[in-house]
Design brief:
Blueprint lengths: L1 E5 L3 H11 L6 E6 L2 H10 L4 E5 L7 H6 L6 E6 L5 H5 L5 E4 L4 H24 L2 E6 L2 E6 L5 E5 L2 E5 L5 E3 L3 H7 L5 E5 L2 E4 L5 E2 L3 E4 L2 E4 L5 H14 L1
Parallel strand pairs: 1-2, 1-3, 3-4, 4-5
Antiparallel strand pairs: 6-7, 8-9, 8-12, 9-10, 11-12, 13-14, 14-15
């Protein structure tokens, strides 16, 4: 797991780094006393987990996490227990109350590892896309997805009984979905290959929904569809 730690107290960051060195599966990529610097770092780096202090001088850790577009898993660290309930409403992996010892840190990291593995690996192996919806994890079977549409910082998953609006980027959704079942056809659309009912050079139809194929993805999409025809 690749992680960062954010805390305005350097000693707290040193402790997290010391504890993390005892794990083979946890790497602290960087530490920050400035939350704004951490935010810039997250824009260009893939991170699985954040150790995040809540009470900081320039920004509250909870508000910082709420405002992230692509949210890694988070373990909140703070000396104030009054923030615990609000922290868990954000689906935090855990909440470490300072000062915490290694055993408590170990428990939190093991929970994070289990959740990350389930999200990144099991969801693909078992034929499910795992998403956060209404403050809980939800598994959506690939067979229940017709297409995914981008809506600003959200995606709309269409095909199940009721479309779901999920806070996730299209890039993240594209990476999680298996390429043998789904293809991105446009900046704003990912479609299920099994659900395509007709197509031409510029559009794909799923049931009565017409979905554009952009020039960026046109050759890739046509190659995939041609292969499907040859296999049928």
């Amino acid at each position: 797991m690749n992680a960062i730690a954010i805390d305005d107290e350097p000693l707290a960051l040193e402790l997290i780094q010391q504890y993390a060195k005892k794990f083979d599966n946890l790497t602290i990529q960087s530490v920050f006393t400035d939350a704004l610097e951490a935010e810039e770092y997250l824009k260009t780096n893939e991170i699985d987990l954040i150790f995040l202090d809540i009470q900081m001088p320039e920004v509250n850790g909870i508000e910082f996490f709420k405002n992230l577009n692509n949210k890694p898993e988070v373990i909140f660290t703070t000396a104030y227990s009054r923030y615990a309930v609000e922290g868990f409403t954000l689906n935090a992996v855990d909440y470490l109350l300072k000062p915490f010892d290694f055993e408590r840190f170990l428990q939190a990291v093991e929970k994070a590892e289990e959740l990350i593995k389930f999200r990144q690996n099991k969801s693909v192996e078992e034929g499910y896309l795992l998403v956060k919806y209404n403050y809980q994890w939800q598994k959506i079977a690939y067979k229940d997805i017709d297409y995914i549409e981008a809506l600003d910082d959200y995606i709309k998953i269409v095909g199940i009984k009721k479309p779901l609006l999920i806070h996730m980027s299209m890039k993240s959704a594209d990476e999680k979905l298996p390429s043998e079942k789904f293809v991105r056809v446009h900046r704003s659309y990912i479609v299920s290959l099994d659900k395509i009912t007709s197509w031409n050079k510029n559009t794909i139809t799923i049931h009565e929904k017409s979905i554009p194929i952009s020039s960026t993805y046109q050759k890739q999409v046509q190659d995939i569809l041609n292969n499907l025809m040859e296999e049928s």
